[in-house]
Design brief:
Blueprint lengths: L1 H9 L16 E2 L2 E2 L13 H7 L2 H25 L7 H30 L3 H28 L4
Antiparallel strand pairs: 1-2
Helix pairs in contact: 3-4, 3-5, 4-5
């Protein structure tokens, strides 16, 4: 074992690179590595960008997502066997976490982008308009739910 240490220690002053070893930052095996410009964090492009700047579409998207989750929960409980497994609370908490992420994106992504780019008034306006559209759609859903139309 001592001879392995002596081999490693013996070559410590010479790493194989001379005074002018042509070592340049940003290169790997002689290839120049240049970072490329990236789009938005999901790499979906302009469709995602334009959707999140429209408060009506954001509010409708939030309502549509809630409708989808409600349908899955309603019909899922009817179709799934009634089990007392630990997987049921895990699935419910996972759905809750996913819902928080989706709603956070729909309500907050574009306003945060605007806010941090310096357009604070437009950020607040977009957020409040999205909340207002969602509030109107929620009130409409409540009226329909309590009117007895779907009974």
């Amino acid at each position: 074992m001592g001879w392995i240490v002596s081999i490693i220690v013996r070559g410590r002053d010479d790493f194989g690179i001379g005074k002018d070893g042509n070592v340049k930052l940003g290169r790997f095996l002689g290839l120049c590595i240049e970072p490329q410009k990236r789009g938005d964090f999901l790499h979906i492009g302009s469709i995602l960008y334009s959707v999140t700047k429209n408060p009506v579409i954001n509010g409708i998207s939030a309502s549509a997502y809630i409708l989808l989750v409600a349908l899955v929960m309603n019909y899922g409980t009817q179709m799934a066997p009634h089990s007392k497994s630990f997987i049921v609370p895990v699935a419910v908490l996972s759905m809750f976490t996913l819902s928080a992420a989706v709603m956070g994106f729909l309500f907050g992504y574009q306003p945060a982008q605007l806010y941090f780019s310096g357009d604070k008034k437009q950020a607040v306006k977009l957020f409040l308009q999205t909340v207002a559209v969602f509030a109107v759609l929620t009130a409409l859903a409540m009226v329909l739910a309590f009117s007895g139309i779907f009974s």
